[in-house]
Design goal:
Radius of gyration: 16 Å
Structural class: alpha+beta
Number of strands: 5
Largest sheet: 5 strands, antiparallel
Oligomer: single chain
Distance between the termini: 43 Å
Helix content: 40-55%
Shape: globular
Number of helices: 8
């Protein structure tokens, strides 16, 4: 139980609001609810930014925003090594076995190579291409946990979603 309390998946109590099942299974519930609520506060040309550990495909992230009634675009796309990998990877692997996810991670080297030389401000224009290039290196949560236990450094992509009214 102590591990779950330290992870993002351990901080979301059951919600009373209607949330699409795929959003819940991908641990995107709070992002989805924030996007739904943000609609009431957006100025006509305003937008909301959401930073997500993109352990799910970009298409899923964009679908979530569309389902919330907003028009999505990837504003920034980057990567990071997994923080607290012992807890986070084990937790994601366990939750995946429970039917959540799947969640995707990558060895550090392919991530570094895929993003090498890319300016952060240009990353949005290359997000789909990078995601496709990383596909052969993608590890689900169980495989990522196993790779971590063998001593590999594991990371994941990070997306900043810009969502706005149509």
């Amino acid at each position: 139980q102590a591990t779950r309390e330290r992870t993002s998946s351990g901080h979301v109590p059951p919600r009373t609001e209607a949330v699409p099942d795929y959003v819940n299974r991908q641990f995107l519930t709070l992002h989805y609810l924030a996007l739904k609520q943000a609609r009431a506060y957006l100025a006509p040309r305003g937008s909301v930014l959401s930073m997500l550990g993109a352990r799910v495909p970009l298409a899923t992230i964009k679908d979530m925003a569309r389902h919330a009634g907003l028009r999505p675009e990837i504003f920034v796309y980057t990567w990071k090594t997994q923080a607290v990998p012992d807890a986070m990877l084990q937790e994601h692997a366990q939750r995946q076995r429970e039917g959540y996810g799947p969640f995707y991670f990558y060895p550090k080297a392919p991530l570094a190579q895929a993003f090498a030389g890319l300016k952060l401000e240009d990353s949005h224009a290359h997000a789909a291409e990078i995601e496709a290039r990383l596909l052969p290196h993608r590890l689900d949560a169980t495989a990522a946990w196993e790779a971590h236990q063998r001593g590999e450094i594991i990371g994941h992509t990070v997306a900043v979603l810009r969502a706005h009214l149509d």
